[in-house]
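pls design
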């Protein structure tokens, strides 16, 4: 099993490294961060605290955990490549988000700094 740190206090256990990479990519897309921010507790300095309850309530489509493209983007991101645009496009397709949905969520995601 693999673990993904959600912040300094919480860890998410997964069944494999592949699932961990796919899930890490999913959690780092703009759309999921925006939804997470709506349920997050405020933290010092304008940051948000993404606790286990908040993360557990996030949308997760079944196809995300089986998508090798998410895993590859996660690998590339870990290697220092800028993957945000490609990640957001792929996750928007999984979620069926149109351009108006994306704009609304982008506004929520960019309101204030975030920390895990």
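designed seq:
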């Amino acid at each position: 099993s693999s673990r993904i740190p959600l912040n300094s206090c919480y860890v998410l256990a997964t069944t494999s490294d592949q699932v961990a990479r796919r899930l890490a990519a999913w959690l780092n897309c703009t759309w999921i961060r925006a939804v997470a921010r709506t349920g997050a507790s405020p933290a010092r300095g304008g940051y948000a605290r993404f606790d286990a309850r908040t993360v557990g309530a996030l949308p997760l489509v079944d196809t995300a955990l089986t998508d090798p493209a998410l895993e590859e983007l996660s690998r590339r991101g870990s290697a220092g490549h800028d993957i945000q645009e490609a990640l957001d496009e792929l996750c928007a397709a999984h979620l069926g988000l149109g351009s108006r949905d994306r704009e609304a969520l982008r506004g929520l995601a960019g309101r204030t700094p975030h920390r895990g």
